[in-house]
Design a protein that fits this description.
Blueprint: E1 4-8, H1 11-23, E2 29-33, H2 45-61, E3 66-69, H3 72-85, E4 90-92, H4 95-99, E5 107-112, H5 114-119, H6 121-129, E6 133-138, H7 142-147, H8 152-162, E7 171-175, H9 183-186, E8 193-195, H10 198-204, E9 215-219, H11 223-234, E10 240-242
Parallel strand pairs: 1-2, 1-3, 2-9, 3-4, 5-6, 5-7, 7-8, 9-10
Helix pairs in contact: 1-10, 2-3
Length: 246
């Protein structure tokens, strides 16, 4: 069996990989952090599809035929495109598994990147599952600030603005895998239950056959920098390899 490929623009995907590794320590994974193109959320659908095409092709060149898009922006904008252009590969997104954990709610807030909000992917899927008011809120600065390891004071200031419209919702979806890294700060600004993608992703792998092996982490940008980021945020010393995507 071949390793599972995991794809995201940076630290959000690292959190997914490490959570999966804790749950399934023997599972082989190859993670590509496409930091050279981060953040995805400010890009057009066409740009996102082109970037995803090159990244999935990189996995294909590595001999990997199953990839998880551990990225809401890619899942909401490029999943159908990728299914069409890579029909022999299994490529999964994370929006369905995130929405599937919702139960009854009167008001659901979706905090996500601009591109994810513009796609209305969460809103349309939520409305098919739950009879609730859905409030969508773009947070265009958050991913860049998280990648830059911005201090909590500045993050709280921008969260004042971004969380104002969803403050009273009884459920808030963190529609970006970067956002759970500052979940404790978001929790200070909203009153409802917070839902993210991490647990449903872990559960989605419970019945999978998995290749046994190590995790390998690549970045399209600076391996030393990503290794330092991982050490600071997760307290893990992990080797990062340069991934050249053409």
């Amino acid at each position: 069996m071949k390793p599972i490929g995991i794809l995201d623009s940076g630290l959000g995907g690292v959190s997914v990989v490490l959570a999966l590794h804790r749950a399934y320590p023997a599972m082989a994974m190859v993670y590509l952090a496409d930091q050279i193109h981060a953040p995805y959320g400010s890009k057009s659908k066409e740009e996102i599809c082109a970037i995803m095409h090159d990244n999935i092709n990189w996995f294909k060149q590595q001999g990997i035929d199953e990839v998880l898009l551990a990225c809401n922006t890619a899942s909401s904008n490029a999943l159908e495109y990728l299914h069409e252009h890579f029909p022999t590969m299994k490529i999964d997104g994370i929006i369905d598994v995130t929405v599937d954990q919702l139960d009854d709610a009167d008001c659901i807030g979706v905090l996500a990147t601009s591109a994810t909000i513009a796609s209305h992917a969460y809103k349309s899927k939520i409305e098919r599952r739950v009879d609730a008011v859905v409030i969508e809120q773009a947070a265009p600065e958050l991913v860049g600030m998280i990648e830059a390891l911005e201090d909590e004071e500045n993050l709280l200031k921008v969260l004042d603005q971004y969380c104002a419209s969803i403050r009273e919702c009884d459920t808030v979806i963190l529609g970006c895998t970067h956002y759970p890294l500052i979940r404790h700060l978001i929790a200070q600004k909203v009153s409802g239950k917070i839902v993210d993608s991490i647990e449903p992703i872990i559960k989605s792998f419970a019945s999978k056959e998995m290749a046994r092996g190590d995790i390998r982490i690549y970045t399209t940008k600076d391996p030393v920098h990503l290794s330092k980021q991982i050490k600071i945020i997760f307290g893990e010393k992990i080797e990062v390899i340069k991934g050249v995507v053409k």
